[in-house]
Structures are given as structure tokens and as C-alpha cells.
Amino acid sequence: MCFLKAGDMIQKQQHSLLNKAEEACDLLRKHLESDHVVRVISHNDADGISAAGVICNAISRQKGKFHVTIVPRLKESVISRIRKEKYKLFVFCDMGSASLTELGRLKGDVIVADHHQTIDKEAKSRENMVHVNPHLHGLDGTRDVSASGVSYLISRPMNYPELAGLALVGAFGDMQCVGGMQGINKTILKDGLEAGTVEVREDLKLARMSQEPLYRAISHTFNPAIPGISADEEGSRAFLEKLGISYGVKFRELGNEEKDILKDELIKINPNVFGNVYSIPKEVPQLRNIEDYSKLVDACGKNKKHGVGLSICLGDREKSLEEAEALLERYQDNLAKGIGWIKKEGSTSLRNIQYIYTADKKRKRVMGTISSIGLELGLLDPEKPVIALSRMDNLVKISGRTTQKVTGKGVNLGSALEAASKSFGGTGGGHNIAAGAVVPYKSMENFLHLVDDIVETQTG
Question: Nearest to residue 9, comparing CAs of 137, 153, 152?
Fold first, then answer.
């Protein structure tokens, strides 16, 4: 019997994924050489929009044409509409792994570039489909690579290392870079570093600190969260005043001694606020920091301005960028209000999970994000997964969030929400640490109790 060392096994798994991505690239090239318009359908978050951006940029560089649509979910109505379209190649980004049987019935060839763990194994061998997903190769789609990274791997044989930065935009959007890069993300980072299209330096990890007044940059820093300051502009101003630092200036306007004082005091609150900062050196200032780039694109998605986010990914540095900055400011204000709401209301606790519920229109857009921030700030119980519920007429949209510590105990929100939602005629899935679902509103209470039971079973 032959035993592979852990490092050798990981290398073998990564090589297997790269081979599958190259197979998808060959199919894409075949259609581009035939001058076929490529139909791209992608998810509406930062990762999905970035994934579409990577694929569409690669197609453009090959002198090809594409038609792209951004959607929140791959519902049956969406698939039915696409089924009527007469394209020769369909590319699904950040979605599709849960719908392979349906996608296999499309008339053209299909590439699925996904990283979610919900896999429809029935259709993986269909001749007209290339399914690229890290989970099929023993890799972790939660940490090792995002959908934009999978899109990058498909375009990688075309040799466009300048797209590595955009691929990492999606990884940041899916919180894959917390605690450092790993897996395929490190391979993508290496491509960017070697080509000089990505840089890494040690610095404070403050949100938009080259763009915003210091007090807003600190109060809008949610990853890592700064207790007593994140989502609290008054707390941020008081913190800076106590240090004798003007809160209205930008970070670059501080003297070296003030920068050192600020760094030391923030590290005392949360050591993770200082570390590796990833950037695209040739980008405009607003997009140079990859995490800031990700937040801009995410704000476009959350505000249903998907075209604005995609336009930025495709190179618009004027009108779309200006609109995105306004959307981000509105989004950050909604986050701050959402965190204030959690501080006031807290969550309702069951045996193994906790939940928050809203029917507020603005709050609906940030429920998943404020759940993650609430866990990190300790406003929500970090020992229990959070199920965030948003009323949508006769339906409820669900966002599940938890921590690495809880997933280490066996909790898998993706499989829990998938199984529970199916029991009530809904849909669901995602990752072990973050997942989503949609169920009928009338089934909400029963759904919650079923998820509670499933999580209990998962933890043994």
C-alpha cells in the first residue's frame, strides 16, 4: 500500500484541479476560435461579479465576444429562460454545482466554474459539460479558492497574470484571506507577484484609509473588527482624540510618530489589525488595495447595481467607479446601522443555533454581513451559528454564518441549510462556514427548528 505525504497529496489535488481547468480552457478556446458569443451567467456578490469579470476579460483579450448576466440565484425560472437561448457555450460562475442535471440539458456546451460544496453528482460526466470545482478534487472551496479564482484557473493557460489581482478580489469578498492565503489562492498570488501585478506589504488593515477621513476609515473597518470602534463613528472619534490625533485627516497626512502611536494602540485592541496588505500597484488609488476593491464591488452587488460592479471589473475607471463609491458609502452606513440594531436587539437563541429576523428593506441587504461582524465583535454568541432571516413577501431569504472554531466541531451550514430547505420546498446550500437558503415564510419556524436539530446531529 502506498501512502502519500500530506504535502504531496495537496499538490496532487491542486494538479488535478488545474488539469480540469485547462480542459475548460480548451473548450472555451474552441468556441472563441469559431467566433461564438460566450454566454456568461454569474452570482451577484463580490466573488461572482469578479468571477464574471475574470472570464469576460480573458474573452476580450482573446478578441472574443460575450453576453453576461448577473443573478442572485440559479432559480428554475432563470434556467428555463436560459434554456431558450441559442448560444453554443454557456459559462456559469459562482453557481451551477447544485444544478448540473438541469444545466446538462442546455443545447450548447457548458462550463461550470464554482466552489460551493453542493454537488449534483448525477451529471458530472455529461459530455457537453466541464465542471470545475475544488471540492471534486479534495480541496476546500471555503478557503482554498473562490469562484473568481476558479475562473482565473480556466483562463490561466492563456497567460494573463494581470487578472490575478481581480481573482483575489473575489477571494477577499468571500472572506478567504482572513489569516492569510492558502491553497490555490497562494498559487494565484504567486502568479501576480512574479508578474509584478500584485504586491504584498505589512501595514494597518484599515478600510479605505487612503480615501476616507481617519475616523471613518477606522469605524468602517469590520475585518478585522475593532471592538468599541467598528461601526461606531463617535467611538472612533473619541479614540483618536484620546491619542491626540486629528480625526478628520487621512492616514497619509499623519506624521510618522502619529502613525506609530495609532498602530500600537490599535494592535492593543486587536493584533490582527496589522499584517499583510495586498494591492494591485498599477490600479487607481480607489482600487489599489485589493480588499477595498472587493468592498466596492460587493457594495454594487448589495445595492443591485451589478452592472456597475462588472463595469469596474472590465476597466471603467470613471462613471462606474464614481457611482460605486457612492454605493459603498451608503452600504457602510447601512452596516453601521445594522450593527447598532444587533447591539440593541441581540439574537434569539435555540439549543444549537441563534437567529435574527427582519422585514426592514435596507437591513435585508446586509443581514449576512452584519451576522459575521456581530460574531467577530462578540455581539452574537460565537459558539452558535447565526441564521439571519429576511422577509421577502411570501418567502424568507436565509443567510447562515458561523466561525472556523464552530466548523471545526463538525458544523456544516451548507449541508444543513440545503437539507432543511428541501424539506419545505425551498432551496439552499453553500459552504460550511457561510451558506444561504430560501423557504416559504409560513415554514420559517419549522425550518429553524429543523436546522437546530441538524446542527445538533452534526456536532454529535
Answer: 137
